[in-house]
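This section describes the prediction task in plain terms. A model, or a person checking by hand, is given the sequence of a single protein chain and must write out its three-dimensional structure as a string of tokens. No templates, partner chains or ligands are provided. The sample shown here is typical of the held-out split.
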Amino acid sequence: KIAMGTPHEEYPAAKLQGFLLFLGATISLVGFSPLSVGAHGGGESLEKVVGNYLIDVGYDSLEPRALESIRFDFQLFLNENREPVPFTDTWVRVMERNNLLFAGFLAKPIFGLTGMSYAFGQGGIYEVTVRFQSGDTALAEASFPFSVAEKEQKSRFSKEVFFGVLVGLLIGGIAVKFI
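The expected answer:
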């Protein structure tokens, strides 16, 4: 600490230097880190018209990969005006060739979209089938091909962490030099 008149006062420059070092570290760890969190504004959607209905299967990944969790949302609309159609539950099936990987019912929640998360075991082409029901009555059903890429091989070197550390050092160096 750089003391002024009393042992507990610091120079304003020292406070500014500490703040800039903190700011640099924060930017490097949050802004450039692979652990950065952001809402998935992107994603894709599979759509199919069945009778008077439009079935929409949305998913949160622009490039689905094996062993990574993918969030699916299931929605049913009237085809003519895209008004939501009430339903009680969906039946979902995931298949790879002739192998059944998942089949089950998903109750429509009171709040939010009907959905599920699923991690595919390997890359390939899968079939996702969804059927919307109102009680015991089937409203609409459709199957979609779903392509999954192989798991990405990660290197031990992380460009994001490297650049984050570099920016943090630069900001810290500038703060020390000019203060």
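For orientation: The two ends are 14 Å apart (CA to CA).
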